[in-house]
Amino acid sequence: MSEIHALAARQAGGKLEPFSYDPGSLGDDQVEIEVQYCGICHSDFSFLNNEFGLTQFPFVPGHEAVGKVVAAGKNAKLVKVGQAVGLGWNAGSCLHCYQCLTGNHNMCSNLEQTMIGRYGAYATRVRCHWVWATPIPEGIDLAKAGPLFCGGITVFNPLVQFDVRPTDRVGVIGIGGLGHLALQFLNQWGCHVTAFTTSPSKADEAKRMGADAVLNTRSADELKKAAGSFDFILSTVAASDLDVNPYIAALAPKGRFHIVGIIPELKIGLFPLLVGQRSVSSSPSGAPATVATMLDFCARHKIAPVTEEFPMSKANEALAHLEAGKARYRIVLKNDLQ
């Protein structure tokens, strides 16, 4: 195969610059995707700065890729050359461990991530195992689909894993890149949805995206009035200072507080959990079958991320836009690399 042209940083916090590499021979179980669009996730920024100590340089970000299959190994199944597919956080799994065999591929102990230990999708092409190249159904705009493969599946997966019911009263903390998708999913799921936000200016928009109610979390009185009323609360914020205890108090008996945003440390009192038989949990993205289910759900209910588009050659500007907190609500790079 020919060289892949990409954008890479040479050091932590460095600017993305043109970079090319030879991917070698395509594996028998791999497919190669011509990247047409790639969403920007906050984890791209985190890994660019090596916040978790896992980044290898030169580093090519990108794990919300959408494009067409341009090559397929001899063992590839379910996808074919010319088909529109998406690729998210994970690019491979062993397929023979207990987790893979029970459909929990995203829990595989030999999981291969799309941009960790390999080059990501801010590039002309990217590779993965065919299992992780998910076909995109008709009715989904390819230009907006990228964020579904990380942000979307991250908030959709808990609905499946924890049997959230249409009769549940659900709260969503944070109306941003993850939360604005969670509102849409939960609304179409049939739940009564409350948006928890510190930005009253987002109230009208939250309601347009599916919230039945908006609760200002800066008001201690509003939180107290909500005590004991939610079956499920989904936290999508990345905050080091989030006090989760008022939200746990807002759970009904047997309610669940579920975290998908990065909270480095939790300080939780046991007594409210014990007496109410409440739970605190977290989850990663999702298995290929769950990703496919999410896409079908999006196509059926016309769910799409709210996005801003930048050319991929302007990825540094797009990342600065994200860092400044100006993204509404996800950024997608349109590939113009040569």
Key traits:
single chain, 338 residues, alpha/beta, Quinone Oxidoreductase, Chain A, domain 1, Rossmann fold, 2 domains, 7-stranded mixed sheet, 6-stranded parallel sheet, 17 strands, 25% helix, globular
Description:
By secondary structure, the chain is of the alpha/beta class. It has eleven helices and 17 strands. The chain has helices at residues 42-48, 98-101, 142-145, 151-161, 179-189, 203-208, 220-225, 245-249, 270-276, 288-301, 315-323, and strands at 4-8, 17-21, 30-40, 65-72, 84-87, 90-92, 112-113, 125-129, 134-135, 169-173, 192-197, 213-216, 230-235, 251-259, 279-282, 307-311, 330-334. The longest helix is centred in the C-terminal third of the chain and has 14 residues, at 288-301. The two termini are 16 Å apart. The mean pLDDT is 96.
Structure summarized in a few sentences:
The chain has two domains: 4-150 and 286-334, Quinone Oxidoreductase, Chain A, domain 1 (Alpha-Beta Complex), CATH 3.90.180.10; 152-282, 3-Layer(aba) Sandwich (Rossmann fold), CATH 3.40.50. 25% of the residues lie in helices and 26% in strands. The chain is built from eleven helices and 17 strands.
Uncertain regions spanning at least 5 consecutive residues: none
Number of strands: 17
* Biggest sheet descriptor: 7 strands, mixed
Q: What portion of residues is helical?
A: 10-25%
Strand residue content: 25-35%
Number of helices: 11
Shape: globular
CATH homologous superfamily classification of the largest domain:
Medium-chain alcohol dehydrogenases, catalytic domain
- The average pLDDT is 96
- Helices and strands: which structural class? alpha/beta
Question: In CATH, what is the class of the largest domain?
Answer: Alpha Beta
Number of structurally distinct domains: 2
Order of helices and strands: EEEHEEEHEEEHHEHEHEHEHEHEHEHE
CATH fold assignment of the largest domain: Quinone Oxidoreductase, Chain A, domain 1
Quote the distance from N terminus to C terminus.
16 Å
Write down the Rg: 20 Å
Query: Judging by the overall fold, what is the CATH architecture of the largest domain?
Result: Alpha-Beta Complex
